[in-house]
Amino acid sequence: MNIKKYYLLLFFSTIVILLPAQSYDYRQRAAQVRAQVWAWENPEFKNYAIPDEMKNESAVILARHRQIEASANKSTWGKQFFYGNSAGELFYTDIDRRMILINDKNALAEFSEFSFKEEKDFGISTSYYSSIVNYIYVIPGARIIKPDGSVKEIDVSKSSVAITEGRNDRESYKKLAIPELQINDILDFFICEIYQLETYNIPEQFIPFYSFDYPALHNSCSLTFGKNLTIEYRSINGAPQLSRTTDSNGNTVLAAELSHIMRINDYENIRWQSPLRDLPLIRFVLLQNASKAFYKPPSARPLGVHENVPYQSIIEDTKHYLNFYQSRLYPIGHISQKARNIVYYYKKSEPSISKEKLANIIYSALNFEWRGDAPAYFNSQTFILILKNLFVFYEIPFKIGFITSKYSARKDEVLIYDDFFYMIVANSNQYFFPPYRYRIPGEIPANLQGETVTTTNYQEDYTITPVNGFKYDAVTLPETSTGENNNIMHLQVSFNPMDMQKIDIKRHAMWIGDVRNFVQPWLLLYEDWDNELRRFLKIEKSYVEELYQKRKTRDLASQVESNFEKSRKKFPEKIETEIKQYHGITPDAVKDYSFSSLGVTMENPQLEYEITYTMNDFVRYAGKNIILDAGKLIGQQWNPTENERNRNIDAYIPTRRSFESEIVIQIPDNYQVGNIEHLNVSFSNEYATFEATCTIENNTIVINTKKAYLQTFIHKDEWYKFIEILDKTNTFYSSAIIFQKKYE
């Protein structure tokens, strides 16, 4: 089974059950779990009929049910007194069961096997006498329901094969094969995970009410939570609301079901989707607020179940969590000092620097020095806190901001503090964001443009002012225009004098704004980025020279120098990759290239370079005439698949953007140009535009084109209008020019 499609991390969350590790008999417990699951009385798992319109589907998900149970106990007095252990225990069981009708060979191949890992333990020592260990067990179950109604359960222990990896051939996981499965059979299977945790929490969970690739008839869930837990949840995008009851033990039971399931085909390849704004699902978090092993913000909700926690409360949590990260600054305090050293010398060379420019230099210096790889310390929270401290030191007025991404929850549907990105608004109208190597100060990330920021004056001592006493302001971040996110190409094209079926191209390429972010990470060398930032920040020594300067880093210096040299030798491969990405084919030969701007500083924000190369596959003969596929010179175009055309979710385009090209084609000697009127086109609507003009000037053909995306949000019902412009562009891409041989 292609588990990737069924256990997609954000939506098909993995499934679980938990038990105490002491005297744990895996086989015995697995047998108990399977017996319990197969005994479920859910009526949808007894209905094998499908509508007539689904009989030609590759597979049909007849039913899916998610059953979760969670409880927690507090740390005992003995543990706290003798071992210093303040952690409680969380018991979490999650079973995900699906029943699928197999209709063809493709579905049969996909569902005939899947992988799982039976158990895992991980923990920490708490004292000389004890340690805390967390356990996870995974129990799968599968059975086949034949067309005649007979049922055959798969013996997992006999049908599973251990897959070993590593030097000691340790078991990495097991693969369960279901060879008895046939077309027209129904596969009824589940995955059960069992957790017993003391020092870890269950991550946010998602209950999906949609399906990928195959139609689904019924989805349901049942969630049972004990008294020592705090549960917070939201139903979004049309997912059913959870009913709430209490069982005989005083546990809260939440349940929901839905019979009309949204279906998305080829979801992994559908671009510009925002899952938390499109897909019907229930989000919930399970918090051990009764345990002292976890940080609990003063604004945390009490034990119990809480639906749709107000935005203001989540903001309060987020502020407290940001304050919590203050304790993580000490190990990386040297980063702040390095940034201050850079700013000190920059200010010395420019004493009258304005506060606006100074804020930009501070951000550039900190972003430049942010080279750490320890996730516990080098993260967006600690970056913003250090930036905040630097602004305090240099008396830059600022506010802390919290903002959601267009690819995460809507502002009024946030669930947890992780839904927010952190930022700083300085000098009233300057925006600074978490670190990214190629980000220029003030540049607004594409995913945050147009979103509303909640800002507040930062206050570290939350015990002085009541939590609800903070004043908030809101500002909407501006969206950039098509001209601010532009890819401009100038091509000089001529037929190769040694082989007329090849063309020589000299291309000047420039990427401005957000579009350059797709190129810089793989096209630029780290050494070049480092040198360019040092030049801009007026740092005299190179990275390698700094390493050689200190005794403790001298050995590292030679290694870094060697790595830089190796990367430089392999750099031509990056150039070939860029050409292939532009044209769709590998160049025949690369002759020369040079960069005039790397696009990493405020003074040179564009990525710009020039390259000369030779290409095949653009020219073909028709008798004595030559046909040039001129349309392809504008670069590869997106040709949507059928699933992308029939989109049933909204589109969130990162930014408004444009793609321009000027192509100058040298007319070869003894040839004349045929009809070029078909290369003059203009198409536009409210979502996109494409236009091209073609003229003959001084024995050259000059083609100018421009494609632009005019909106950042397209409703699914309007998607066809955007596709119309793409189709027109692809028609132009297929255009050719005929060069006719002159008769002497």
Can you give me a brief rundown of this structure?
This protein is α+β, with helices and mostly antiparallel strands and 744 residues long.
Q: Say what the CATH topology of the largest domain is.
A: Immunoglobulin-like
The gyration radius over C-alpha positions equals 31 Å
- CATH top level assignment of the largest domain: Mainly Beta
Biggest β-sheet: count, sense, barrel?
Answer: 9 strands, mixed
User: How far apart lie the N and C ends?
Assistant: 68 Å
- The average pLDDT value, as a whole number, equals 89
Number of helices: 17
- Using the alpha-carbon principal axes, give the shape: globular
Q: Strand pairing plus helix content: what structural class?
A: alpha+beta
Helical coverage, percent range: 10-25%
Count of structural domains: 3
| CATH architecture type of the largest domain | Sandwich
